[in-house]
Amino acid sequence: PPGTGVDHSGALVLGGVPVAELAEAYGTPALVVDEAAIRARARRYADGLAARWPNSRATFASKAFPCTAVYRLLAEEGLGIDVAGGGELTLALAAGADPAGLVVHGNAKTDEELRLAVEAGAGTIVIDNFDDIDKLERILAATRGEQGVLVRVTPDIRPDTHEAVSTGQNGSKFGLLLPQAREAIARLRGSERLRLEGVHVHVGSQILDTEPFARAVEAVAELGEFAVYDLGGGLGARYTYADRPPTVEEYLDALTDVAKRLLPADARILIEPGRSMVAEAGLSLYRVVSVKRGDGPTFVAIDGGMADNLEVSLYQQRFEAAVATRPTGQGEPCRLVGRHCESGDTLSIGVPLQDPRVGDLIAVPVTGAYTYALSNNYNGARRPPVVFVRDGAHRAVVRRETYDDLMRRDLP
Ligand code: LLP
């Protein structure tokens, strides 16, 4: 990943810090994040979009990494923040995000969450269903306020990605199909307190070609002319050497080429990248706990797994891995497995690890997205710390959970 290198002894360095030093300081498992890499990615998105479409804003889909340090960092970079639900909204506000730049999502927003968003002054609420409209009308009638909204459209596009993260197809639980979207738009145009600003589309995640994005823009263009088009997120990350996602620039070209043809020239374009903003900036550190050799594959078992990285179990995502303290590239093909009570708890199949031994430090790169977000306490696991590295310095931004934390909510 960006910022990673190897020193003269072949040991892995991230953000100018040898990762072995981080394992000493913070223990394992640990999620290390290259702060400069996230900032660089944020600028690449924001500047790249502005260069192609000046009236625009890049917004971070915070579900990919909802910790206050990450919110703060992206707010500092001037990005808007996409929040799904009251929890992410609260975290974003606590981190100092500008409420006007918040885009509030959810297919099941409660009255409480909508009220929270309205009271916080969230700039944009995305209408997913007709109930959102009813609820907001009621809330705003009481507060006598106004609220900017977008309508989320389901354009019936099925990108080539895992079914669980495909959202734009007919039959998706998200958004409104084109006829219903038109109906919602008509209703909102007659609303006194809901200010319809435009439409939103998001067709899925970990998308590895640009075509579905271009088709999504074509689909929203069919709905007519609006002031705002939010084109969602979804660009894939490069998890393994075999993955070839489009670059940020290729992705932005695909969107804006269609936009230049089909959208009003003075419209505002928003995008909501999540995964591709943070995935490659993160690296997980583990220790080898056991090495099992037999007839089949060599099992290298580590001190983490599906409690700190659910991508594998939920979406069969594969990761690369390396012994962090020895030169990479060669070695015996190993099955890198977690410590949890499921066979699916496997981070890598056939990854070459050089002479793996108990106590070795293992680095799994490209773990910045949806790992912290989906981390859990399965088998009584304590969630790992998040450590920021930058210019040779490091600091924890989330501490490791303790056994006391595990019991904190239990009542006697
Ligand atoms: N906007 C909306 C409305 C979304 O629902 C999402 C992701 C994004 C933007 C950001 O998409 P991204 O750029 O991250 O692909 N839990 C799954 C990922 C689910 C993504 C859901 N929505 C995972 O861990 O892979």
UniProtKB/TrEMBL annotation:
Cofactors required: pyridoxal 5'-phosphate
Domain Orn/DAP/Arg decarboxylase 2 N-terminal: 37-279
Enzyme Commission number(s) from the entry: 4.1.1.20
Reaction equation(s) it catalyzes: meso-2,6-diaminopimelate + H(+) = L-lysine + CO2
Pfam families, alphabetized: Orn_Arg_deC_N
MF GO annotations: diaminopimelate decarboxylase activity; pyridoxal phosphate binding
Keyword Lyase in record: yes
Pathway(s) of this molecule: Amino-acid biosynthesis; L-lysine biosynthesis via DAP pathway; L-lysine from DL-2,6-diaminopimelate: step 1/1
Residue list for modification N6-(pyridoxal phosphate)lysine: 63
Binding positions (substrate): 275, 315, 342, 370
Binding-site residues, pyridoxal 5'-phosphate: 234, 272-275, 370
Active site: 341
Swiss-Prot/TrEMBL keywords: Amino-acid biosynthesis, Decarboxylase, Lyase, Lysine biosynthesis, Pyridoxal phosphate
Coiled-coil stretches noted in the UniProt entry, renumbered to this chain: none
Family listed: Belongs to the Orn/Lys/Arg decarboxylase class-II family. LysA subfamily.
Function: Specifically catalyzes the decarboxylation of meso-diaminopimelate (meso-DAP) to L-lysine.
Subunit-structure text: Homodimer.
PANTHER family listed in its UniProt record: DIAMINOPIMELATE DECARBOXYLASE, GROUP IV DECARBOXYLASE
Protein name: Diaminopimelate decarboxylase
Organism: Streptomyces alanosinicus
